[in-house]
Amino acid sequence: MATPAHPPGLSSESAVSYLHLNPPYRAEHVGSLLRPPLLRERRSQFDAKLCTLEELKDAEDAAIKDAVELQQQLGLRTITDGEMRRGAFYEGMFEKLEGMEMLVRPIETFKSYLPYVQFFLAAGMPAAPSIHTTGKITWPKSGVYVKDFEFLKSVVPEKDVKNIKMTICGPTWMHMRHGTEQTYDHSVYKTDDEYFADLVQAYREELRALYGLGCRNIQFDDPTFAFFCAESTLAGMKEAGVDPEKLFDRYVKLYNDILQDRPAELTVGLHTCRGNYMGLHYCEGGYDGIARKLFNNINVDCYYLEYDNERAGSFAPLKYVPLNKVVVLGLVTTKHGKLESVEEIQELIDEACDVMLESPVPRSRAYALNQICISPQCGFASVAEGNPITVEEQRQKLTLVVEAAKKILV
Fold it and tell me: Mapping DSSP to helix (H, G, I), strand (E, B) and coil, where does residue 222 land?
């Protein structure tokens, strides 16, 4: 673990020095930022074969440089590339791993109980683009996000390389979407265990490559875990003969297998929210039903949690956060431009601390406060089109996160 447990009797100053030598920092953000108009235009042109890949890459490079400058100007220590090279947050890993093929797949191959698949069905979509594993999964020698990291590393000062955060689609994404029946060709893999074993190895090799280049902060983006909070999804699983608890446990093992023997200097976070498609959510439900296992059984250092409205439920699940982990509370919404206030954030953090003091594991209030960071609940552009929010509103939201962290947490 990058942030090992320690006794709760330390002063707040000692606790800060102990837990926050590494990310997450007090003021955080999930990763994606609004794409500039030129980049959106270039991507549309490229899709229509009206510009070259090099022209698209030039626009991406310029957008990333601007995104880095914005984060530095606002005082954010964590630096991402804003996901400027992606059409959606989940792009990259599955498309580039060898053995996986991008196809337009019949809607019948998708799990109808998933919240976003319900959107597909409501729209009358007969099919949708997705991945099918048609061969043995192997990690490509050129890497998946390796070149993305190398470019980002080239545009930040050497002292800030350790603050770069790479966001990666969670390994559960395709299996949750298609299930055992449709995720992989059964002539290639007979069982989930066989499929997951090769997927684990590919993820491990990607993390190893990024670490070797200097990456010290990985964030898995995985709405899958939040789907287990939705009663409609749980009911649909049971109706389809899927045991939600067993599947959740299998996904926990998947993560732990990937993270086994990771370097102590590599901070790993898990972001899970209820959907953020152009400002729309897919489901609702608090973390209550999964909190014990989510916070205690997955070997990550921190959790980026959605807490920007009532759909997320109460802070009650936070009483299960162990002493050696940090929660990044998403108290500022990216779904609309209305600006929250420092006072509102202060009130919510006080409430979260109150709950953490109800934990079966004793901790002081100062210690509980030290286990909290703040951020927006999700990115500003989980898909390239972005949320219904302006560039200036995005700036104001991120500025608020930094200001609130300074006034409340430091």
Answer: coil
Q: How far is CA 58 from CA 89, 154, 197, 208, 335, in A?
A: 20, 15, 37, 28, 29
The tens digit of pLDDT for each residue in 330-340 reads 999 999 999 99
Model confidence at 146: pLDDT above 50? yes
Continuous segment of H or E residues that includes residue 17:
helix 12-19
Cα distances (Å, whole numbers) of residue 232 to 161, 244, 271, 327, 351: 43, 12, 21, 26, 28
Classify 176 as helix, strand or coil: helix
Pull the structure tokens for residue 318.
Answer: 């936070």
- Taking Cα atoms as reference points, which of 257, 74, 251 lies closest to residue 170? 251
CA 381 to chain centre: 13
CA 256, CA 245: separation in Å to the nearest integer?
17
The SS3 assignment for 158 reads helix
pLDDT tens-digit readout, 24-45: 999 999 999 999 999 999 999 9
End-to-end CA distance of the chain: 23
Find the helix or strand (DSSP H, E) in which 128 lies.
strand 127-138
Check if the beta carbon of residue 200 is closer than 8 Å to that of residue 227: no
Give the tens place of pLDDT for each residue, 66-98.
999 999 999 999 999 999 999 988 898 999 999
Axis-axis angle for helices 146-154, 53-74 (nearest 10): 60
Enter the pTM of the model: 0.93
Residue 259 CB coordination number (10 Å): 20
% of the chain with per-residue pLDDT over 90: 85
* 3 state SS of 305: strand
**What's the CA angle centered on 100, arms 95 and 105, to 5 degrees?**
85
Q: Residue type for 269, please?
A: G
Burial of 253 (0-12, 13-18, 19+ CB in 10 A): middle
| Cβ contact 278:387 at 8 Å | yes
For 367, the token pair is 């210690």
Quick check: helix, strand or coil at residue 168? Answer: strand
